[in-house]
Amino acid sequence: MTVKQAIANRIVQLCKERTIAPNELGNMAGINPSTIYSILGPKSKSPEVATIKKLCDALDMTLGEFFTTPEFDELEQEIK
């Protein structure tokens, strides 16, 4: 799994937990919903930390809470 996939999975998980659609999350965060779908899509690059911070603010959570999951802990080391 890549960092980008882990981020996309986390966004989907949080939307399901809070019963909101990804485009609704985008609106709450002041981000164009197409940006959210781009993050979730297979062709996009990893989102900027500032974008994830906006999502966290909209979800009333910290960046630490966003990234504190086994999925992120188990990512392969990028630099070897």
UniProtKB/TrEMBL annotation:
Superkingdom in the source lineage: Bacteria
InterPro entries in alphabetical order: Cro/C1-type_HTH, Lambda_DNA-bd_dom_sf
The protein's name in its UniProt record: Helix-turn-helix transcriptional regulator
Bilayer-crossing regions: none
Pfam families linked: HTH_26
Gene3D superfamilies: lambda repressor-like DNA-binding domains
Cited PROSITE patterns: HTH_CROC1
Domain HTH cro/C1-type residues, every copy: 11-66
